[in-house]
Amino acid sequence: MWIRNAWYIAGWASEVSSDHLLARTFLGEPVIMYRAENGSVAALEDRCCHRHAPLSKGRLEGDAVRCMYHGLKFDPSGQCIEIPGETNVPANYRVRGYPLTEKQNLLWIWMGDTDLADPSDIVDWPYLDDEAWRFTEGYLHYQASYLLGIDNFLDFSHLPYVHEHTIGTDAFAQNRPATERTDYGMHIRNIATNDPPSAHFKKFGGFRGLVDRWNIYNFHTRGNLLLMDSGAAPVGEGGHEGERKNACEFRHLSAMTPETETTSHYHFGHARNFGLDVDGLDQGVHDTIVNAFEEDRDIIDAQQRIISGGGTAPMLPIAADAALLHIRREIDNIVAKEQQLRTAAE
Q1: Which own/partner contact pairs does 195-198 have at CB distance under 8 Å and 24+ positions apart?
Q2: Which CATH number fits domain 7-119: 2.102.10.10, 3.30.360.10, 3.60.40.10, 3.30.70.3270?
Q3: Has this prediction a pTM greater than 0.85?
């Protein structure tokens, strides 16, 4: 179960080049991605229309992909342009081409109705290409449903338990974040005042006393995308509403792209606006964030194993689940509407 008419993150732009094919599965469909000679990006179904051999075992020839089973050759749109030994290529000899676009160092793919794919709908996150901010690219593969991943995005109550030694503090478990439903999904504000800094902020912000801390983010239901403003400042300086001159600030992007019903792609970028010339700080920040996200993955993959093992016991909600339960219902509604439209068109 997933929303098809949405822009999903397919990878980092750095992962795709003109000298190899990158194979991934999105929403249960195998796809190859590559970069044409003019720098543009293309995505095709990873299945030759002849004998269904995977094109990911083929080779790039200029802007085209040749299947290395019987030699059929496809252009970036998916149209077959050559069949060895034959002079004519029937028009219906093609594979599906997917809208794929590059923006702010990310690749975005559209898996639904091509006529609805409008690149202007892709969200803007300037911290990934702004010289005033430095970010590192991240990717993890989950052996779990994307739904469990976005549950985790929308849940602050796990922070002091899953992330006891990295980014969690007790205050974030006791707080009830302010939530606002929006046309794109949900806006969430979690503010902790007079809070001991987490290990993350102690290390990179140099805080020794109490801080005012914030996580303010927007969750976009289409694309399973989280965009976060997070930081900490010394108590009494106004926190997120102050000048932030002594604050330690980050801007974060996380996205869960479904691979199959029980596996997912997790892409994340963590940007900062301090210490841009400090040797080793990029790696230090990245390692800390990856350690925290590995903690998430460990518990979520284990959760999926329990769910996949069967049983009929329901999940019992608590008050902290309000945001994630709303988004689950929203996904259900969008998926149902898409299915109705597909059925009506058949």
Answers
A1: 195/169, 195/171, 196/169, 196/171, 197/169, 197/232, 198/163, 198/166, 198/167, 198/168, 198/169, 198/232
A2: 2.102.10.10
A3: yes
